[in-house]
């Protein structure tokens, strides 16, 4: 399975962006998917996740109410709608997928990673 993230860019504080992560392979509909981000000098952190069937989502407290993760299994794509962006949201955003349906957010539990897309929020 290959993941290709896109949609990053430069946006002013308060603005919106939508990230997309397109996947190859036949197994997308069975994968839990998530978005992580890594700011300069910081560790990679969880942003939001969605179960394989789309019936459950979870978010980091820092983005709750502003970001929405969704998926289209027919298009084999997961999305991250980001609203009310803040300068502290500036980071490289990565999509990830895994075949195991567990609650752990440990980075090592994710089987597949995209290449990352840069989001820069100016103040």
| Shape verdict | globular
Note the main sheet: 7 strands, mixed
Q: What percent of the residues sit in helical stretches (DSSP H or I)?
A: under 10%
- Could you report the average pLDDT, rounded to the nearest whole number? 95
Structural class: mainly beta
Distance between the termini: 37 Å
Alpha-carbon Rg, integer? 13 Å
- How large is the count of helical segments? 0
Q: Topology as H/E string?
A: EEEEEEEEEEE
Give the DSSP E fraction (strand runs of 2 or more residues): over 45%
Total beta-strand segments: 11
- Poorly predicted ranges: none
Account of the protein in words:
- There is one protein chain.
- The chain has 123 residues and is mainly β.
- It has strands spanning 3-6, 9-12, 17-23, 32-38, 45-50, 57-59, 67-72, 77-82, 91-98, 112-113, 117-122.
- The strands form two sheets. Strands 2, 4, 5, 6, 9, 10 and 11 form a seven-stranded mixed β-sheet that branches. The protein has a four-stranded antiparallel β-sheet with strand order 1-3-8-7, with no helix packed on it.
- A hairpin with a 6-residue loop joins strand 4 (32-38) and strand 5 (45-50).
- It is globular, with a radius of gyration of 13 Å.
- The mean pLDDT is 95.
Keywords summarizing the entry:
48% strand, mainly beta, 4-stranded antiparallel β-sheet
Short note summarizing the structure:
This protein is mainly beta and 123 residues long. 0% of the residues lie in helices and 48% in strands. It is built from no helices and eleven strands.
